[in-house]
Design goal:
mainly alpha, 57% helix, binds acetyl coenzyme *A, 3 strands, globular
Length: 379
């Protein structure tokens, strides 16, 4: 066996990207050069999508144009509505959304013939289409799980307001809408994480953008990646209250359980996005008067960091924030899809613009060559 193997590709620099820069030394994350905290403080999510896709923040006309097109693309095709009705209501929302995105790819006439599946202009349109459709799909899935009819999108609301309107049929406070917008900005992009790398592998075969997003959703579903925001809430439910943290953690660590929402492959001294999301969560906790949740959150963080020296990642504050906003736990990771589709599609386009098939090598560690009994070679 060779010493060159990097299990999990840990530490491997697989390619160059101009989309984002993760710097664990300075604990910073830049989208196209801008610190994510500055974007979260100032930009509508539509502007961040434009930035990721085009490299620059939009001017007022560009933003207005993008918002107009995004609003036009929100309503679901009747075939998507029919598909959502066909899927078992108990199915995990990640599987439902993955299936719906796969179907959206079949509506695209430019994909009906082989060849030409990557095209820079068409891919921009496809990315915007998915960006606009995903909130409508996810809101419909959330409502169906609660036995409620879907709510049509409103073209007088921006992305974040409309998402919450379609899900709940009412708008929370402006401050709560802003927490949701911030979460979308923070989740949008994070270099070569597992789902983005999956999307790039698929794009590298010159397959199409929808296929890349479907694959990325599959990768995001796992609790070691995006599924952790859902898993955090299950842990909170399991623990129940702050006074139960210590015995719960004793038992969990003795059983060698992973504590979801903590740890990161790249950041070892804290996730650059956590302070911004934690501040947003604190605003929701204050608004909804949930000091019990704050105590549970802080106690688990303090105990785990003290014992293991492993810090929270973005999923730790975002899970409880989504719960306070009223989302069901199983919808948290689909919300991550809605945000990360911007980063995934930017990476698909970047991969296509400078493509090399992604095809690593493997070292073989199986049985030596042998022969099928009874096989007689032709002479
Ligand atoms: N709980 C308990 N122990 C942990 C955790 C955790 N959350 N994270 C790391 N460790 C321990 C491991 O058990 C391992 O211990 P060991 O050396 O004694 O075996 C050591 O720290 C190194 O952990 P690895 O999993 O090998 O490190 P890796 O870089 O692969 O881990 C990962 C990154 C997968 C995210 C890990 O920290 C984890 O599983 N966290 C929980 C899941 C999670 O929150 N994922 C979200 C990622 S961020 C995102 O997607 C937005």
């Amino acid at each position: 066996m060779t010493d060159d193997i990097k299990k999990g590709l840990a530490g491997v620099i697989a390619d160059v990207t101009a989309i984002s820069k993760v710097n664990p030394e300075t604990n910073s994350l830049l989208y196209r050069g801008y610190p994510v905290q500055e974007l979260a403080a100032t930009q509508p999510f539509e502007a961040v999508a434009h930035l990721l896709w085009n490299g620059e923040l939009p001017d007022a006309d560009q933003l207005a144009d993008l918002q107009k097109r995004e609003r036009e693309l929100r309503p679901l095709d009747e075939r998507t509505v029919a598909l959502l009705e066909l899927i078992p209501v108990e199915a995990h929302p990640m599987d439902v959304v993955r299936t719906a995105v796969s179907q959206l790819g079949t509506f695209d006439p430019t994909l009906h013939r082989p060849g030409g599946w990557t095209d820079p202009v068409l891919d921009q349109g496809r990315a915007l289409y998915l960006f606009a459709q995903l909130p409508t799909i996810i809101a419909a899935v959330q409502r169906r799980r609660r036995g409620l009819e879907p709510i049509a999108p409103r073209d007088d609301l921006d992305y974040s307001e409309n998402f919450l309107w379609m899900t709940f049929g009412e708008l929370p406070s402006a401050a709560a809408v802003d927490v949701f917008r911030i979460s979308m900005v923070l989740y949008a992009e994070h270099s070569f994480n597992a789902s983005t790398f999956t999307a790039r592998v698929i794009a590298s075969t010159t397959s199409d953008l929808y296929s890349a997003v479907v694959g990325a959703i599959g990768a995001l579903k796992g609790p070691l990646h995006g599924g952790a925001n859902e898993a955090v809430m299950h842990i909170f439910d399991e623990i129940g209250s702050a006074d139960r943290v210590v015995p719960w953690l004793d038992e969990a660590l003795a059983a060698k359980r992973k504590i979801m929402g903590f740890g990161h492959r790249v950041y070892k001294r804290g996730d650059s996005r956590v302070p911004t999301m934690k501040a947003a969560l604190d605003r929701l906790i204050a608004e909804y008067g949930r000091t019990d949740l704050a105590e549970l959150y802080d106690t688990l963080e303090h105990e785990f960091v003290t014992r293991k020296g492993i810090y929270p990642n973005l999923d730790y504050p975002s899970g409880p924030a989504y719960s306070l906003l009223g989302f069901e736990t199983e919808i948290f990771t689909p919300l991550f899809i809605a945000a990360r589709v911007t980063g995934w599609t930017a990476h698909v386009m970047e991969q296509a613009a400078s493509n090399a098939l992604i095809r690593p090598l493997s070292a073989y560690d199986g049985v030596d060559e042998r022969h099928v009994p009874g096989y007689v070679p032709d002479t």
